[in-house]
User: Which sequence fits this backbone?
């Protein structure tokens, strides 16, 4: 709520919160040598000792020097009664304004109320001769991040055929919503739908609610984990309908090795049925992404899936696949 109010005020003016509970609307100018320079339409130019400053809400972007180092392109907001700086290095939580050594000179104007990143990956293989083989693998993932909320959309389509006979046909769609309650804790919900006829899954739907924790969120690292209680409804090609309560564990890790787009990443989902210890599934993808030119990059990745209790005993428990694909990133 405080962050939402901060956005509303930043649209028209900055707001300075004092330790005595008062606040002043105006414009943040700079901070240096223990003093905050502030411009108020009612009170004029002010110089306030940093010991009297509790929070600052400002949509302008500044370079900030703290006792812990320098931060670039920062804007300031309040969340869960704590001062936060949203900078190029990531979101920083500030315990006290006394820790700021200097800040000033807006870098750019206009607060980025929305951060978005996404990628579409395409991998194909087509061969003929002794073996007629065709493979398609299309993945899309898009993340929208507001200050206190995050939306993630993911799509997957896979098809393979050998000697003109289809051997794999699978598609999956998913949506995840995260609502941050503090700097790192967030409530989370998810919904998934997939089909995989060669695993005898006519269709499977799942929804869940739970909690998550953001361990890292910087310009170099992202690491988050979620645990949710899900309801899974499976309709098999055999006509059987299985409804199962389950616990879903989700981990998402990215290590950006350079600002050019080189990245190591790993994601996995673990689904454990609560009414059957043997009913267990793992879906994971681990890979390396490297830039080509502009928005284009390439990825080499390993997909590893394990189903402890497949729909039919003839279906393999393990699926493992290496692939190289072309990405378009935004």
Assistant:
């Amino acid at each position: 709520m405080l962050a939402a109010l901060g956005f509303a005020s930043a649209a028209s003016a900055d707001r300075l919160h004092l330790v005595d509970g008062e606040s002043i609307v105006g414009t943040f100018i700079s901070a240096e040598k223990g003093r905050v320079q502030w411009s108020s339409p009612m009170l004029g130019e002010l110089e306030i000792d940093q010991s009297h400053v509790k929070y600052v809400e400002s949509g302008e972007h500044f370079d900030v020097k703290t006792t812990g180092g320098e931060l670039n392109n920062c804007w300031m907001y309040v969340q869960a009664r704590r001062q936060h700086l949203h900078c190029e290095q990531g979101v920083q939580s500030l315990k006290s304004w006394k820790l700021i050594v200097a800040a000033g000179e807006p870098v750019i104007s206009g607060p980025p109320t929305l951060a978005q990143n996404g990628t579409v990956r395409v991998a194909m293989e087509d061969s003929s001769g002794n073996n007629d083989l065709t493979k398609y693998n299309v993945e899309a993932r898009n993340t929208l991040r507001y200050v206190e909320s995050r939306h993630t959309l993911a799509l997957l389509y896979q098809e393979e055929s050998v000697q003109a006979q289809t051997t794999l046909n699978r598609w999956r769609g998913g949506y995840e919503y995260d609502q941050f309650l503090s700097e790192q804790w967030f409530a989370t919900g998810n919904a998934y739908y997939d089909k995989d006829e060669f695993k005898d899954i006519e269709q499977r739907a799942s929804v869940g609610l739970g909690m998550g924790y953001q361990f890292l969120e910087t310009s170099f690292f992202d690491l988050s984990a979620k645990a949710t209680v899900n309801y899974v409804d499976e309709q098999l090609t055999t006509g059987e309908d299985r409804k199962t309560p389950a616990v879903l564990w989700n981990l998402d890790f990215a290590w950006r090795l350079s600002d050019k787009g080189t990245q190591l990443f790993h994601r996995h989902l673990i689904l454990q049925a609560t009414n059957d210890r043997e009913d267990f599934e793992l879906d994971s993808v681990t890979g390396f992404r490297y830039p080509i030119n502009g928005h284009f990059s390439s990825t080499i990745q390993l997909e590893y899936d394990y189903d402890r209790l497949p729909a039919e005993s003839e279906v393999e428990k393990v699926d493992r696949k290496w692939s190289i694909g072309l990405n378009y990133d935004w």
